[in-house]
Amino acid sequence: MANDTAPEHASPIEFTAQRRADLIRAISRAYPPYRVWWSAGIYYAPGPTPDGGSHTLTAPTAGDLCKQLAAALGREGVEL
């Protein structure tokens, strides 16, 4: 059937500035102590390491960043 497969390349979702700000706040609330921000098409999440240092996670999409945040905090899946 023609509709059984997903397209090979889906276009990225474009956010308004307000929608992106709302998404960033939601991710930051879901994954404390990380502070999420976005610049030039990349999501950033600086936060602490278990040994008291710091690191920054980066990803091209909010979903990818959430997966990294969940893994860094020992959680399963994406939580928002």
Describe the protein's topology:
Layout: H1 17-30, E1 37-39, E2 42-48, E3 54-59, H2 62-72
Antiparallel strand pairs: 1-2, 2-3
Give a short synopsis of this structure.
Helix content is about 30%, strand content about 20%. With about 80 residues, the protein is of the alpha+beta class.
Can you characterise this structure?
It is a single chain. The chain is an alpha+beta fold and about 80 residues long. Helix content is about 30%, strand content about 20%. It is built from two helices and three strands. A three-stranded antiparallel beta sheet has the order 1-2-3. The longest helix has 14 residues, at about 15-30. It is globular, with a radius of gyration of 15 Å. It starts with 16 loop residues before the first helix and ends in an 8-residue tail after the last helix.
Task: Provide tags for this entry.
alpha+beta, 80 residues, 3 strands, 2 helices
Q: What is the H/E string?
A: HEEEH
**Inertia-based shape:** globular
Radius of gyration: 15 Å
Biggest sheet, strands in spatial order?
1-2-3
How far the N terminus sits from the C terminus, by CA atoms, comes to 34 Å
The main β sheet shows up as: 3 strands, antiparallel
Class by alpha and beta content = alpha+beta
Tally of DSSP helical segments:
2
Number of strands: 3
Average per-residue pLDDT, rounded, comes to 85
Helix content: 25-40%
Unreliable spans:
none
Beta-strand proportion: 15-25%
